């Protein structure tokens, strides 16, 4: 600490065919080397074009670079074999101790030469020499990757005093250079919300107020027979849907997600999940998911009881296994692929076992406890009685076709979040920090409002055209935004990422499929509950003989 080192030799290697192939492959694929010092990741400062004194930080340094010699057309591969480290320290004057506040590097490719015989670390290099104060500042004679050539690895360490305090050492890493676009995204999303809120308010005030007062004044039998719109289907609006068990399972899953995301975001906004705590976000999300099993069981069995179900254990079992089971299967398949590639990115078997243990040991029992508690509660009362014989649904206009209205419904929730989505994808796949949880929380709130409102608007139109099959449609209307999420992820893959390997592409689409599936459960549940409350509100305010 605080002792600068110059031109320290690490080792010398002789490149064999196998190593040459490996190094060239890694340089071609732009692999980066990551290091950590005192929990700070190594960064390469790169000057910004627009401001002289501003830098942005690239995580890790590239293994090497491709280039051509002057006058030559052949492309060669050069390895970064000299690292010039800068460790910035904040000095405590009273106690004369220093704490590390930044860890930077400038990589160089240098064809080292030395005098006499090779004598490990005691060899005197002529290309850089601490005794002669000869320092490397450029890659003028770079080190080529070629069979039979020797590569000598060296490094410098320089300690610089810094005014940055230890507590705020992460600030420069997390500095946001483009907050304007986030504000733009939020204003854009708010416009969508205002537009939808206006529609919902109009429906509520004008139509419902007028409709309800008109319905409640109907006296004569003839007028009663001429009723149109949503009141006509009051005897069928609360008829349990087909596949009601599956709906209960998905609503439970969505509630589990909603609880997990809400708590995670509150913690993140309050600054508990700092990136300095590596893996903290993932751990928090997994644990919260497991404990939110209680809510999943409770909400699915409450709905199941409303649909006149009697086997609560059956619904608890399905809630505990349907979503996590399918996600675990995809995850296991992807992990097997990474294992096959002998990658260090594979999740170890012990971690897999720990995940299964969390799932079976905590999540499943909690789902059962939640289901038991939910089933013990009295049944939710329907605001109107359901007729014995289902009413015939009249022929619908083309724009009320289920597929069309479901697909239209997903566009607005997706539109409200897609700019933020770009930043999230960039941080996951392009190695950048994502630490704008304040913005993310705002976007999450906007997403909730948008999903709820679009579902209510389309549900109202559907009931007005005397189609009472709203249960599944309300879930799928806002849930279809997951389809757009996956399509956007596909577009992002082909436009922003340069992935050529088959396994890498499978990994990308596999993980994005899991993310879209989760997004479907979340947005669908928000839309479903919005319609659930909306229909109860409108039908409970009408007098029905």
Automatic annotation (TrEMBL):
GO terms for cellular component: endosome membrane; Golgi membrane. InterPro entries: EMP70, MFS_trans_sf. The keyword Endoplasmic reticulum does not apply. Keywords: Endosome, Membrane, Signal, Transmembrane, Transmembrane helix. The chain crosses the membrane at residues 181-205, 247-273, 279-298, 319-340, 352-375, 396-429, 435-463, 475-494, 506-539. It is a multi-pass membrane protein. The keyword Transmembrane helix applies. It is found in: Endosome membrane; Golgi apparatus membrane. GO terms for biological process: protein localization to membrane. Belongs to the nonaspanin (TM9SF) (TC 9.A.2) family. This is Transmembrane 9 superfamily member.
